[in-house]
Amino acid sequence: MRYVAVPGRGTARWLLPVGRPEIGGVLESWAPFRLASRAAWTAVRAASHIGRVADIPGVSVLEVEGVRGTDWSALGWRWREPPVAVIYLGTPGPRRKAVVHLVERETEQCRAVVKVPLTDWAKAAVLHEADVLEALAAEGYEPAPRMLHADRARGITTQTFVEGHSASRRLGPDVWRLLRSLMLPGENTSLAAEAEAWRRELGSGANLGVPSRVAARVIDELTDSAPLPACWEHGDFTPWNIKRLSNGGCVLLDWENARRRGLPLLDAFHFLHMQDFLFEGRPKLHAVEIMAAAVEMGMAPAQCLKLEAAYLVGAYVKSRQQENAERARIACAALELYRRKAA
Questions:
Q1: SS3 state at 38
Q2: Residue 205 and residue 136: Cα distance in Å, rounded?
């Protein structure tokens, strides 16, 4: 089947079927945050609508084998006709995957999303998300997709598609409602318990470099065993992983980094610090601006500042593990700001 490869940052990111105007809903649901990328994507959508996407400068036309002959019902497709497949290729790296949007021909609605891992690490992440989504469904948690199928041998999963638009970059009331929905009533955790895990992951001794020694000193300060309300920690709580629905609600996507009984507010700090990293390229501290909301959720102001330090330690440790040197540098610089403020 003929597809048009739409590039992004030097590599193919979208594979769009040629001559299929019914994919417009999928394209409309995705919106870049950078102004230049948003303008380029608007042009792609317009060209697709009139059947001219192959004429856009810089794209390539290619044959994608296997799409036409795929048994979609074996992957959880429950509708009558075979779907139209729109393929998004994730960011290159150790967790890269293909995300296949399945559009029903008759209604032109996207009904399902198939995740196909392209690496072993991505396979583990996709299957972890399937476990999380099943656990959330068992707990009656609503603001998340639902699993339709999981092929555990190949690591391929199918989940419901969520129709909506990405959240704004601001921590507005709708986003705070979503954060509060992640709380686990009656369950507690503590900074001290998490600090011990970070200490093991970071390592110790003379082989630690200067940035790691900064993180280790902060870990030593996070020994507070006072109970904190526990929550589901999403792990990648960002505007592009939040869909705003037409009824005013929100749904949270991409649960591949999630875990149960995490510390509160870490997702709120991730929401802000990831934007600092991607759009600002410099470190900041955000405890003061979210302190009022933290108090409403049952935390003291001093705990809010420590939770920001906890988030930054976790971000630094994870960045080292993933060999993301630039993000590790920014996280360490923010930890230095925290140490100066806490001194």
A1: helix
A2: 40
Question: Helix 210-221 crosses helix 301-321 at what angle (to 10 degrees)?
Answer: 150
Q: Read off the tokens for 156.
A: 């391929």
**For residue range 121-160, what is the model confidence (pLDDT) as tens digits?**
999 999 999 999 999 999 999 999 999 999 999 999 999 9
The domain 2-163 is placed in CATH, from the list 3.30.200.20, 1.10.260.40, 1.20.1300.10, 3.40.50.150, at: 3.30.200.20
Tens-digit pLDDT profile for residues 178-209: 999 999 999 999 999 888 888 888 876 545 68
CA distances from 101 to 14, 84, 93, 111, 114 (A): 11, 8, 21, 8, 6
- Segments making up each domain of the chain, as ranges: 2-163, 166-342
Please provide the CATH number assigned to the domain covering 166-342.
3.90.1200
Whether pTM exceeds 0.90? yes
